[in-house]
Amino acid sequence: MNLPTREDRYRPSVLTAAITGGDVLPSQTPHLPCGVEEIVAAGIAAAEAGATVLHVHGREDDGRPSADPGLLAEIAAGIRAGTDAVLNMSTGGSPGMTEEERLAGLDAAEPDIGTFNLGTMNYELFPTAGRMPEVRHEWERAILETSGKGIFANPLGSLRRFAAAFRERGIAPELEAYDMGHITMARFLVEEGTLVPPLRLQLVLGVLGGATNTIETMLAMRDAAERELGGALASIGVAATGFPMEFRCAAVGLSLGMDIRVGLEDNIRIARGVAAESNADLVRAAITIADVVGRPIAAPGDLASYLEAWKS
């Protein structure tokens, strides 16, 4: 009698640390890494705490999001000098960046992985005036003044352009699905040959304009991804925003064998009403969850064969 093979319940999951992002304002937390030295130090500390992958954006010393190639190259060089963690560069950037700015990191940093956003959406960070933070910088105030006007533009033509940029450089794309329709778009891009399997898919949950960060939504999107993309997938991961949902989705995701992402880009609290003092704090909390549910965290070397396939 031939029984189906049971999936290895102890298979390692990839843990990504999203170090600084392009959306959180420095005035929201004094612990957000800004500038080359702080971002590099935070990335190395997160890797030492156990992160497999470091997801990186650029920021100037005052916290202003930046796509300056020189700054991004310095960050990448500093991280590589201090850790063997896999380098993942954002091509989402921050609100208002041009496509050229969003693609700048692929050449400047030569990352192993880059994020690949799958669709256009309303994208609101501070939609309610009463909950807007007190800010220190004029550039932060300008961000708050755009409330109600946020759109994250990723039309089909841009997706084809970004996919070509990844292929030309031998960089693996990490597909970012903020909503159910983005999974449908991923299938279309695979079917037309724009995206080449096997692919890593990440569910980014909790941005206003996209899918909610509930467990039920995560499960529905995971099921849809497996149904629509099936064998085209190398893995499915989850990056849920805010406390406590970052950790609740991580706990369920790890239990299901998914990859996970934590970090100050997505969540600035380690407990209710308690600020996370570092990305490393959030990584250690995620590893505690992984230990409890019996899901080990992948080492950077575990991704070597996957990444080499993209470089060839």
Please provide a brief summary of the model.
Helices cover 39% and strands 18% of the residues.
Structural class: alpha/beta
- Poorly predicted ranges (pLDDT <50, ≥5 residues)? none
Q: Write down the CATH topology.
A: TIM Barrel
Form type: globular
CATH superfamily: Aldolase class I
**Mean pLDDT rating:** 94
Examine the secondary-structure arrangement and name the CATH architecture. Alpha-Beta Barrel
Radius of gyration using CA atoms only: 18 Å
Report on this structure.
By secondary structure, this protein is α/β, with parallel strands linked by helices. It has a single domain (15-311), classed as TIM Barrel (Alpha-Beta Barrel), CATH 3.20.20.70. It is built from 10 helices and 14 strands. The protein has an 8-stranded parallel barrel, surrounded by 9 helices. Strand 1 (15-18), helix 1 and strand 2 form a beta-alpha-beta unit. Helix 3 runs parallel beside helix 5. The radius of gyration is 18 Å and the shape is globular. The model has no long low-confidence stretch (mean pLDDT 94).
